[in-house]
Amino acid sequence: MTIFIRNATLLTLEGEGGTEPFVGSLLVRDGRIAAIGPDLVPPEGARVIDGRDRLVMPGLVNSHLHSGETFFKGRYEHMPLEIWMLYAYPILMGPRIPERLLYLRTLLGAMESLKNGVTTMVDDWFDPPTQELDRLATVFTAYEHAGIRATVSNCVMDKNVLDTLPFARELVPPGLQAEVEDSSVTVDGYMDYCKAVFDSLHGRAGRVNFMVSASAPQRVTVEFMQACSELAVARGVPLHTHILETKTQAVTGQEFYGKTLIRHMHNIGVLHPGVTIAHSIWVTDDDIALMGAADVSVAHNCISNQKLGAGVAPVRRLLDAGVNVGLGTDGLCSNDTARIFDVMRAAGLIHGIATPDHGRLVSSREILKAATIGGARTALRHRETGSLTVGKAADLLVLRMTGFNWTPLNDVCHHLVYCENGSSIETVLVAGEVVVENGRLLTVDEDAILAEVRETVPAWLEQHRLVEDRNRVFEPFFAEMHRRATIQDIGINRYQGDLPLWTGQNRPTA
Ligand SMILES: [Zn+2]
Fold first, then answer.
1. How many CB atoms within 10 Å of residue 353?
2. Which residues surround ligand 1, an ion (CB under 5 A)?
């Protein structure tokens, strides 16, 4: 379909105009942006959208999420990562989610994302204990049906979870340790699986790609991380991983390797431009220099980080070092919505608690670039999407600028970061296809899907509650691990306020 958007306010975020909006028209043809300019004339037969009082901008990119958490939105509160994972990613696993619910779970996140202006998702999908092509195919199908662009992994670890945490072997009683099964993941098995995915699912519908993902350096063996890195480079896809989200992980690096986890990654030869690191909060100056020199990307998940009490990432220093930064929600039980607009606003605000040096805060323009082109780069899809550039895919948003979020109008970029919440979105295009119009999804029956989720998911959540109950037995030992790690002086601090912050009280249960 040919679409002509006439006389809109255009915010390209790269190339002409960059972060400075201008009035012009935009032509979409064969799924791509065919022309941008002030004096364009609509071709015959084109669908014309009146751009008056409308802002056209690139679709947002969610650089890091886990679709497996989508049914857990609103479920947890006030737990540090290591304890929260006991419930969101139980050590003593329950039954796997049935096929239909797997489909609905993925679709629900994609639907919420599209309606809120996210046109590309980077889904670090996790489906232990085994890797099956059919299950991943279901995830791909859901994204295909939603019409969203997605880069999806199957995130794994090849170590026993108790060997990924500091002090765990010391703190958890032997009887309980015996109940924790070893990972069934092997280097060869995962490589074979990934190759099968590349041969079958990767590139599906022209929109859904696969990426390689090793959960975190301390959660996999050196051979495993190296094999993943090699495969990712060979296939031109990202190596997605988590590094230094929590202070406990900073302590882990020292306990396991006698060095930081970034220095460890550097030493084993797996820091390169295709690496996307979720979080990177507890990084040292030396780590930041290594990351900049290696030209890696970081997914900054500032709402999730506060929900899990992980600290504030040194984003200004990462940007100064030349690290590419995207924005992510992380999963929906540590962020609770799929709205990147919320993450943008948080990113504009959170860094103010970390420094009185107001000249070093992260600006709206930097945040908008992180939410679009920076995010596209984290998926290595920046040549394909992430900005309004002639030749790129037409992944774009049309926002109405006449509501409260835009009246009166001052600085467009400031409005996008501090005033907008997605409610002004009228139209969303992915690859030139209208997927949201007048705020309604066109690709799937929104009401029917929501009704099916309301009908079928509570029984599944009830089953999950029983799994949580079984895993609660670990909580006191993990709480002690968290306490022991967080009271250490490790030379850097990403919490605000006095240390130690430990009160010794258990978290409230009611
Ligand atoms: Zn994550």
1. 11
2. 278, 330
